[in-house]
Amino acid sequence: MSQTDQQVIAVVLESAEVSLISRWCDEGKLPAIQRLREQGVWCELTGPGYISSGCVWPSLCVGTNPAKHGIGFFHRELKNGTYRMIKKYADQVVGEYFWDSLAKAGHRVAILDAALTKPTPGVNGVILCDWGSEHPGWKQCSEPPELFADVSQRFGEHPLADWYQRRLHTVEEWRELSDKLIQGAQIRTDIFCDMIARSDSRFALANYSEPHWAGHMCWHLHDPDHPEYDADLVAKVGDVILDSYRACDRGIAQIVERFPDANMVVLSLIGMGSHAGGEMLLPEILDRLGMAGKGPARNSPREPGGSRRALFGNTAATTQIIQRVEQVISPDLMRRVKNAVPERLWDTVTRGVLSVGTNWKNSIAFSVPGDNSGLIRINLKGREPKGKVEPGREFDAVCEQLITAFKELRDVSTGKPAVTDVYKLRDLLKGPLIDELPDLVVLWQRGVPISAVESERLGRIELEEFHKRPGGHWHSGFLIASGHHFKRGEALPTASLLDVAPTMLALFDVEAPQEYDGEVMRGMLRV
């Protein structure tokens, strides 16, 4: 299938929403992407994004499911064998990057900002790590080591390099953000083209983080149904999400013009929408089900008389207190403090706060942080230090009780089910690192701000939903492929994100490792 003189260039539009890409292509607003779609093949991608946004990049890069690569929601994960929250890093992803398999087979590679990865020493090609990442999972560095300094000197840093979850208040600040997103996409394109040309790479991949930033911060400037939509602000600033997508589209056009004979692949691993759901309600739901811990919480202050009072226990009010800390502390102050201490110390301290005063050790089940779904951990004997639930039948019974109770919940504001499904991960994923993941995943209704639920079993539970960002992740991505290797003008059935790595290897006649969970997408390839 492969021809050694051909190139494959992959562009990841990080967290670009599939429905927006499709609509804006049809409306002629993304002409470069639309040409690739017309000339090649197109499909939606499903994957483990129903767990969280944090596990999709490792699934792409090493070709396995989270029970094998060990990453759930890497920003904030429960350290297995403890009741302590941690952040995971690129060196904790288990598996080999698929481009390392290409490089070992003699195909030069060029990789820019693949999230939650680190450079492979001595790689046959060039790798630039975290030049402009929305969520760094490693330090800024490169292979060869001198590449990062060279790129920084010639192109500078990303315009949002010093960004730390700033809160914007004025039209000028929103316009500045929009300008920086557009500038970042253009600089990224220039760096990527330079890396490909100078390395003479046969496979190249770049991650455009700009749609990710725009989606989180600016969804309310796009969606008229968003509770924070401000028509006057939109009239003055515009649709920042569309502008960021257009900047990426211009970058793709520039890449195609520079490398006209390359096979082009454009994809998104997970989508974006209004940040909504019912995560705030999880601890109270568990409490009413009798799952929450009774007795003194860990590290809680003593009441007069010697008992302990849970500051952040397993209650809805506690979760609200933790999440509202960022409303009280200035992001600018947080950024200055963060920059003044070693990064891993900052990560350790801030993640540790999430487990201070919890009563997880006395619980049957407890909620752990996520983003687009509710995540529940069973306090399992032999896995947790103070496990309460026996593996096997008792574990299964607890899971079934929770699944049933969540499926009974209805959104008070709409009368419709609040939960679309509850997944028991052990029934879906197989791998030696399954215990690194939550046990149950609660899928809320998409795009619905759920602040009150009710059921006959639990009664009414109400608590204001708090999110610091207007946009949140959703589950589906997409893939567009055009060039000599691919069929022309076909919309294909939905494929799996796990199919991407073996397909990229197949383009170069490199056999996929045995541990891969996906299959080659042969329906998009020319025979």
Structural class, from secondary structure content?
A: alpha/beta
The proportion of strand residues reads 15-25%
Shape: globular
Q: How many β-strand stretches?
A: 21
CATH architecture of the largest domain: 3-Layer(aba) Sandwich
Helical residue percent?
Answer: 25-40%
The rounded Rg comes to 23 Å
> Could you tell me how far the N terminus lies from the C terminus, measured between alpha carbons in angstroms?
7 Å
Largest pleated sheet: 10 strands, mixed
CATH fold descriptor of the largest domain: Alkaline Phosphatase, subunit A
Low-confidence stretches: 298-322
What is the assigned CATH homologous superfamily of the largest domain?
Answer: Alkaline Phosphatase, subunit A
The overall pLDDT average reads: 89
| Overall domain count | 2
Q: Any chance you could write out the topology, listing elements then pairs?
A:
Blueprint: E1 8-13, H1 18-26, H2 31-39, E2 41-46, H3 56-62, H4 66-69, E3 77-78, E4 85-86, H5 98-104, E5 109-112, E6 125-129, E7 141-143, H6 146-155, H7 171-199, E8 203-208, H8 210-218, H9 231-237, H10 240-258, E9 263-268, E10 271-274, H11 282-288, H12 316-328, H13 331-340, H14 343-353, E11 365-368, E12 374-378, H15 393-408, E13 410-411, E14 419-424, H16 425-428, E15 440-444, E16 452-455, E17 459-462, E18 471-474, E19 477-482, E20 490-491, E21 495-496, H17 500-506
Parallel strand pairs: 1-8, 1-9, 2-20, 2-21, 5-6, 5-8
Antiparallel strand pairs: 2-19, 3-4, 6-7, 9-19, 10-18, 11-12, 12-15, 13-16, 14-15, 16-17
